[in-house]
Amino acid sequence: MDSKNVDGKNLLADSHTALRTAVAGVGVDGWDLPTPCEKWTVTQVLQHAAGDQVGYAAAITGGPWPTEDPFSPSGRIDGEHSAYLAAALAASAAAYETIAVDAEQVPTPLPQGAMPAWLAAGACALDAGVHAWDIATATGQASPLTPEMAGPLLTVARAIVEPLRAYGAYAAALPAAEGEDEVAALLRYLGRQP
């Protein structure tokens, strides 16, 4: 898929829906389950994903950054998990609504810095969508990623992930498997076993 065909804002909305749905589907006994993110529980993945959304918003708005390090989540959330997530998603959605679709320099919290609007929103979407998959997989839910989401997310991933692997943000890519769909291709590229 060509970058010109990636609608970052719609992709972000779809990824937010996927993450919201995955979190809503976690049972009361599911928050301490292990996830595909090595060494992190479902709660910690939620904290990481919510913290990243707040970070993307803060990079744009200059507002508050996450109160906890998203890369060292405590595993404890005060209050409702869904409310905790809702606040983070609202912050990032509102921040991206202020960005023109053709903006060339949108601030991000990534080491790469500012990037075109489609890619900045796509990077935020990639984070939400893939962690939605992590939470759903850990808790026995159906994958919230669709091939329609995965194709554009893979385009985004190919544009931003390689330098992030050095920071430990993504594992090494796994070899592609013949006959798999876009969802599997995306997950393998990000070092996850479909």
Characterise the protein shown here:
The chain has helices spanning 8-24, 42-61, 81-97, 117-138, 147-165, 182-189. It is globular. It has six helices and no strands. It has 194 residues and is an all-alpha fold. The chain is 53% helix and 0% strand. The chain has one domain: Four Helix Bundle (Hemerythrin (Met), subunit A) (Up-down Bundle), CATH 1.20.120.
Low-confidence stretches: none
**In total, how many domains does the architecture comprise?**
1
CATH arch. level architecture = Up-down Bundle
- Strand content bin: under 5%
Order of helices and strands: HHHHHH
Distance between the termini: 21 Å
Please identify the top-level CATH class.
Mainly Alpha
CATH superfamily: dinb family like domain
Number of DSSP helical runs? 6
The residue fraction in helices comes out at 40-55%
Specify the structural class.
Answer: mainly alpha
CATH fold field value: Four Helix Bundle (Hemerythrin (Met), subunit A)
Radius of gyration: 15 Å
Biggest β-sheet strands, sense, barrel: none
Total strands: the figure is 0
GO molecular function: metal ion binding
Organism: Virgisporangium ochraceum
Pfam families: MDMPI_N
Protein name: Mycothiol-dependent maleylpyruvate isomerase metal-binding domain-containing protein
Quick recap of the structure?
Residues 12-136 form the Mycothiol-dependent maleylpyruvate isomerase metal-binding domain. Helix content is 53%, strand content 0%.
Would you spell out the secondary-structure blueprint of this structure?
Blueprint: H1 8-24, H2 42-61, H3 81-97, H4 117-138, H5 147-165, H6 182-189
